[in-house]
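Annex B. Sample input.
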Amino acid sequence: MTVVVGLDVGGANTKISVLEVRNGVAIRLATGIRYLPLWRRLAELPYVLNSLVDYVLGGLGRSPDVVALTMTGELADVFESKDEGVETISRMVSEVFGRSDIRVLDCRGRLVGLDYALKHPYDVAASNWYASGWFVSQFFDTCILVDVGSTTTSIIPIVMGDVKAEGFTDLDKLRLYELVYTGALRTNLASIASKIRFKDGWVGVSSEYFAQTGDLYILLGFIEAGDYICDTPDGRGVSKEEAANRIARIVCADRRLLSMDDIISIARFLYSRQVESIASSLRRKAERMRELYGIDSIACVATGLGEDFLAAEAARRAGLTPVFRLSRITRRDVALMTPAVGLAFLAASIVEGRRVYWNPAL
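Annex B, continued. Sample output.
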C-alpha cells in the first residue's frame, strides 16, 4: 500500500490531505485544515503541522511514503523575500516529516527534491494552482477551472487534458488574468469598490479595514459560521448582526444609523462587484483560449469555498457553459482544499508509476 501526504501551506491556512492507494486504486482520503496567519504566528507552523498529522494520520501506524509540499505562504510579509519564505517553510516541514521523502511541487508540475527547491525557490513559489488543474483534468478534457479560496481566485485553463497556464509567477498570473486577488473571506471590502450605490445616490467607501468578504457572505447566507475560520477585522464574532455592524462601518456608519435592509443592500452591491471582478478575468482568459486553441464552447469547473456563489456565478456571468461544481463530482472537502488533494493524487501517481484516479467510493 502507498501512503502519500499532500500539503498546501498558505499565508492564512494550512491544508493537508492523506491518500492511501492499493494496487493503483485510491482507497482512503482524509483531509484537514487549520487557520494559521503566518505573518503573526509563523513559529506555530510545526505545531499546526503536527496537529494536522495527528488528525488525519492517527492510527495509520506508519510514516507516509512521500510528503508532497506546495506553498503560497512565502508571500507573507513576515519574510523579507519569497526565497526566505520558501526556505523557512520547507525547513519547518522537514522538521515534522524528516523521516519521509519530501518533494516540492514546482510551477511546471514536477515534484522536485528539497535541495532543488532551496536552490530554485522561485520555481516552487505559489505553484499550488498546478495541482488543482492536474487533478481536475481527469474529469474534464478541456475547461477553465476557477478556484475561489478565502483570499484569492485562481483561473486555470485546461486543454486536451493538459494544464495550459501561461503565467508561472503570481506577478505574471495577475497580468495574464490567471490570478485575481479576491476571495470569499479575507478580502477588504474597500478593495472591491471605492463607492457604492446607496438609496438614490452614491456614497464613498472608507479605506479602513473595517470589514471583509466573510462578513458579506455570512450576512447574505452564502457561508455558515463554521466556514468563517479567519480572524474578523474587529476581533468580534461572526454572527449576522456582528457582520452587519462591520459592513456599516465601511460607510462610516453603524447599526443605529443604518437598518438591516440598508446593510443588506450594501452587501448585495459589493457581492455583485466582486463577482464581476472574477467574471472580467474569466472573459479575457476564455477569449485567449479561443485565440490559441480555436475552442468555441468552454466549460467551467468551479471549486473552493466560493465555489457556488462566486466561481460558478462569475462563470455564468462570463458566458461559460456548462458550469460544473467539483464538490458535486467529488466531496465538499475536496473542493475546499483542491490543491492539497490534487497534490496527493499527483504524488501517488508518481510513486505508483501510473495515474491514480478519483474513486467515487472515497
